[in-house]
Amino acid sequence: MEVKRYSDQYAEDIKRLVQEFQAESLAEYGMTYNDEALNQQIDALKHSAFIVEIDGHAQGILAGKEVYTPSGNDKVWHEVIWYMNENYRRYGLKLLAYGKEELKKEGFTHLVMVYMHNSKSDKLYDLYTRLGLTAMETNFIGRL
After folding, report:
1. 141 in a structural domain
2. Is residue 139 one of the residues assigned to a domain?
3. Can you give the pLDDT of all 144 residues of the chain as single tens digits?
4. How many other C-beta atoms lie within 10 A of the C-beta of residue 12?
5. CA dihedral defined by 115, 121, 122, 128, rounded to 10 degrees?
6. Is residue 94 part of a domain?
7. Which pLDDT value is given to residue 119?
8. Domains in the chain, number
């Protein structure tokens, strides 16, 4: 098991992981991916993505985007996806720890992690709290 930065050699693995994430976490909100949109999303995130590689394949991903506070004083990394293949979820915290250290080196001052209100809400809320994160806002989604 190795945690490292994204590399294009894992593109197909990442596509599979994002599709698994969609099926497990986003489908209940009526959200789907098409291949073109999925490839664009991966291209947009790969410069700020970290993976867990096991036996030559990516089994987990943590990816996000750079944003700034309205004052422009703080460089914030906003998570878009943190997903581990179900068989390897025990490595998820190692992936997060690695990502946080790399982001600090790059000058990020804050980390925003997504908290989806679904069947895993309580576990994720408890985990984020144990990691020292503070709840900041709740978003609502609806079909247009």
Report:
1. no
2. no
3. 999 999 999 999 998 998 898 888 877 777 777 778 878 888 888 888 999 999 999 999 999 999 988 887 889 999 999 999 999 999 999 999 999 999 999 999 999 998 877 766 678 888 889 999 998 887 777 778
4. 11
5. -20
6. yes
7. 62
8. 1
Q: Is residue 108 part of a domain?
A: yes
Structure letter (DSSP) for residue 117? -
Alpha carbon distance 116, 88 (integer Å)? 20
Buried b (16+ CB within 10 A) or exposed e, 64-93: beeeeeeeeeeebbebbbbbbbeebeebbe
Q: How many H-runs (helices) and E-runs (strands) does the chain carry?
A: 4, 5
Cα separations (Å) of 132 from 6, 85, 96, 112, 113? 26, 25, 13, 12, 12
Q: What 3-state class would DSSP assign to 78?
A: strand
For position 79, which CATH number holds? 3.40.630.30
Domain of residue 34: give its range.
2-130
- Any bridge partners for residue 2, and if so which? 53
C-alpha 117/C-alpha 50 separation (Å) is: 24
